[in-house]
Amino acid sequence: MHSSKAIILSIATTDSGGGAGIQADIKAISATGGYACSVIAAITAQNTQRVTAVHLLPQDIIRAQLDAIFSDLPVAAVKVGMLGGADTINLVADALEAYRPRHLVVDPVMVSANGDILLAPEAVDSLKQRLLPLADVITPNLPEAASLTGLPVPASLSEIEPLIGALEALECRAVLLKGGFLQQEPRSPDWLLHNGEVRCFDTPRVITPNTHGTGCTLSSALASYLGQGLELELAVASAKHYIEKAIEAGTRLKIGQGRGPVEH
Ligand code: PLP
């Protein structure tokens, strides 16, 4: 007898250190019960300390990967992560408009927590114009939300309100705003903006240096749960639970000299 799994596609970039990017996506999708496949948009030379090189793949190779997958695999959900530049954003948006996957999570990756630039700043407009309108949900962290809205990065919880208002004005179907960058807060809140309502998902903050790849992991787990049929709020709650457990488990790991990965 055959059994099947929800096929979850990550369109993103590799992390040679194994903690973030496509490597984190595949681990998170597998651990949450999906079948992971991937379109590699770019390659990074990277470890737990820094990104030392980025190579954007040729457009025809990215297009060929997309066509190979969509012409054969019944993709249940797509997660888009680091794409690196405007040409790739346009190409991926064209493909998503043509293939229309049932669920689309867009992680608007721009800068790593170590400060490495992961999207050319001039490509932010393409991201806003081409990819955000296609997404069921976008998952910005606070600096990414600030960049998308033109507002300053909030320094405390009291500064979140205007950012939430500006994100609602972006006309995305849903936004999961991640509050993890508010390091001094005792809790780690995320806010789901959906159907004119704001729901806060609040978990205790785990104090650890091992948070490399947390954004990739959360957005992949979310795509995985959506692809397996969970409705948005339950998929967000489940993905938040998954990343919380992965961060807790990661506190016991010592991998590399810098910000180590979470444990899947
Ligand atoms: N490298 C790649 C390929 C990524 O996609 C990302 C985030 O999406 C990062 C690095 C940055 O991860 P972090 O900020 O969690 O270290």
From TrEMBL:
Domain Pyridoxamine kinase/Phosphomethylpyrimidine kinase: 15-262
Associated pathway: Cofactor biosynthesis; thiamine diphosphate biosynthesis
Source taxon at top rank: Bacteria
Record NCBIfam families: HMP-P_kinase (TIGR00097)
Annotated Gene Ontology cellular component terms: cytosol
InterPro entries in alphabetical order: HMP/HMP-P_kinase_dom (IPR004399), PM/HMP-P_kinase-1 (IPR013749), Ribokinase-like (IPR029056)
Gene3D superfamilies, alphabetized: 3.40.1190.20
Keywords: ATP-binding, Kinase, Nucleotide-binding, Transferase
EC numbers on record: 2.7.1.49
Descriptive protein name: hydroxymethylpyrimidine kinase
Record GO biological process: thiamine biosynthetic process; thiamine diphosphate biosynthetic process
Originating species: Oceanimonas baumannii
GO molecular function: ATP binding; hydroxymethylpyrimidine kinase activity; phosphomethylpyrimidine kinase activity
